[in-house]
Amino acid sequence: MKHRKTYHSMEIKAKDNKVFLIEGPVEKQVIEECIFDEGLLAFRPPPQQKKALLKVADLDESRIIVAREDNKIVGYAIYLYPDPLERWSEVELDNLLELGAIEVSANYRGYQIAKHLLKVSMMDEAMEDYIIITTEYYWHWDLRGTGLSIWEYRDVMEKVMKTGGLEWYATDDPEICSHPANCLMARIGKRVSPDAVHEFNRVRFKHKYMF
């Protein structure tokens, strides 16, 4: 499958006069030329996270959407093929991508940056050719930093994902089923074939169908 990518951007001016550029999919050069805000700590220290994104940018299927204030990246969303060790890669669909990470700096919360990252992600008309999934596990959530309960965080997360058209999908995946707050969310593009949808449904339920 040829991965068509069309760049889109959106400028957001906040009430405190901060201006953010949400853009993507971006080229590797954009990431190279930017610094990462020190509050981007969810996965690894900012310098190491920048290196990780540069590696992801080399993957043909990857899509990286960034939010930046001038040349400082304050948030990002990454789409790529599921990890080969995950069940979602078993169907070998070349049009199934995972929202592998979405992070906003703790220093820039309250600007609805995550929602805008997803909105810009879906501006690309080519996304109608893909099944986009995200697996959400409560142990990855910043409950301490936000002060939210598990269910409050889950509610916020679902609302954010819905801005990108992702909806809740049932599954018998053991990790997701290990806690009721965990969930699978997905967006099935308008041009995705019935055969691809069938394969996605098959991998959602490896033991039996539950619709």
What can you see in these coordinates?
The protein is of the alpha+beta class and 211 residues long. It has one domain (8-204): Gcn5-related N-acetyltransferase (GNAT) (Aminopeptidase), CATH 3.40.630. 28% of the residues lie in helices and 26% in strands. It contains seven helices and nine strands; from the N terminus they run E-E-H-E-H-E-E-E-H-E-H-H-E-H-E-H. The protein has helices at residues 28-33, 46-57, 113-121, 143-146, 150-162, 174-177, 194-204; strands at residues 8-13, 19-24, 35-36, 63-69, 72-80, 96-104, 131-136, 167-169, 183-188. Strands 1, 2, 3, 4, 5, 6, 7, 8 and 9 form a nine-stranded mixed beta sheet that branches. The longest helix is centred in the C-terminal third of the chain and has 13 residues, at 150-162. The protein is globular, with a radius of gyration of 17 Å. The two termini are 29 Å apart.
H/E element string?
Answer: EEHEHEEEHEHHEHEH
Q: Largest sheet at a glance?
A: 9 strands, mixed
Q: What is the distance, rounded to the nearest whole angstrom, between the alpha carbons of the first and last residues?
A: 29 Å
Backbone CA Rg: 17 Å
- The average pLDDT score comes to 94
Low-confidence stretches: none
Q: What does the overall shape look like?
A: globular
CATH superfamily: Gcn5-related N-acetyltransferase (GNAT)
Q: What is the annotated CATH architecture?
A: 3-Layer(aba) Sandwich
Report the oligomer: single chain
Strand content: 25-35%
The third-level CATH topology is: Aminopeptidase
CATH class: Alpha Beta
Share of helical residues: 25-40%
Determine the number of helices (DSSP H or I, runs of at least 4 residues).
7
According to DSSP, the number of beta strands is 9
Structural class assignment: alpha+beta
Protein name: Acetoin utilization protein AcuA
GO molecular function: acetoin dehydrogenase (NAD+) activity; acyltransferase activity, transferring groups other than amino-acyl groups
Organism: Salipaludibacillus aurantiacus
